Amino acid sequence: MSRALARPERFVGPLTAFRGLYAVTPDEPEIEVLTLKVRKALAGGARFVQYRNKSASAGQRREQGAALLALCRRAGIPLIVNDDLELALAIGADGLHLGREDTDIAGARTTLGKGRLLGASCYDSLQLAIAARQAGADYVAFGSAFLSATKPRATRAPLSLYREAKARLDSPVVAIGGVTIENAHTVIEAGADAVAVISALFDAPDIERRAREFARIFQR
Questions:
Q1: Catalytic residue among 7, 19, 62, 151
Q2: Measuring CA to CA, which residue among 14, 9, 7 is closest to residue 139?
Q3: Which of 48, 116, 131, 156 is the 20 to 30 A CA-CA neighbour of 6?
Q4: pLDDT tens by residue, 16-54
Q5: Strands 20-24 and 48-51, how do they pair?
Q6: What secondary structure does DSSP assign to 34-69, as a single string?
Q7: 123 DSSP assignment
Q8: 171 is catalytic
Q9: Cα separation of 217 and 196, whole Å?
Q10: What domains are there in the chain, each with its CATH number?
Q11: Which of 88, 90, 125, 92 is nearest to 108 (CA)?
Q12: Catalytic pick from 40, 52, 61, 116?
């Protein structure tokens, strides 16, 4: 059995360790292809992985999630499940990420307990982020930071929002949506602790190399 990922009681406050490339999985039906892609992202320096698959069946999601958790445990990297509290609990994932119309944040915090990460999408709203933190979210995500191929009609979050969030919130801030190698530095300079990336990472010809390129931006 793989070694459980060591976690603090709960991630709170200005989490300095929450920094870097946050890899969000594509809607890949083949488990072998998906695990290979994530393995390459981890080898390149991804610091967090979010399992997100909007097109898979419940059975596929369970199988894929468990396989990714095993990969992440070996790498010592947290696996966070998107929008599915039941799945996160079933596979023993390290966290859960929720959108505005998903499970109630306070309820999810209670169910997850204190040992797992809880993130919240806050779109372009600082007030949503403040409410999410009060309800028990450990980190907040704003976006779309740029025009997104995954969600082309998504609300845009201005750079000023990342600056204000860092000034007012005692939590990590994540930028998501349309983040690429060319523009990632702008949201990081504005205050983002991590960048959540799908297409610019997993559609790259060399995923491991692209992950290393993202990782190097945080070393500047």
A1: 151
A2: 14
A3: 131
A4: 589 999 999 999 999 999 999 999 999 999 999 999 999
A5: parallel
A6: HHHHHHHHHHHT-SEEEE--SSS-HHHHHHHHHHHH
A7: E
A8: no
A9: 14
A10: 20-217 (3.20.20.70)
A11: 88
A12: 52
The pLDDT tens digits of the residues spanning 95-111 come to 999 998 878 999 999 99
Q: How far is CA 74 from the centre of its chain?
A: 18
Per-state percent for the chain, helix, strand, coil, to nearest 5: 40, 15, 45
| Burial class of residue 188 in the structure, from the number of CB atoms within 10 Å of its CB (0-12 exposed, 13-18 middle, 19+ buried) | buried
And the tokens for 49? 């992985």
Q: What percent of the chain has pLDDT over 70?
A: 93
In 25-180, which residue ranges form alpha helices assigned H by DSSP?
31-44, 58-75, 85-91, 105-112, 126-135, 159-168
Residue 52 falls in the annotated catalytic set: yes
Asked if residue 74 lies in contact with residue 2, where contact means CB atoms within 8 angstroms, the answer is yes
- Residue entry with tokens 């698959």: 53
Which residue among 121, 144, 148, 171 is the active-site one? 121
| Cβ burial, residue 153 (10 Å; 0-12/13-18/19+) | exposed
151 noted as active-site residue: yes
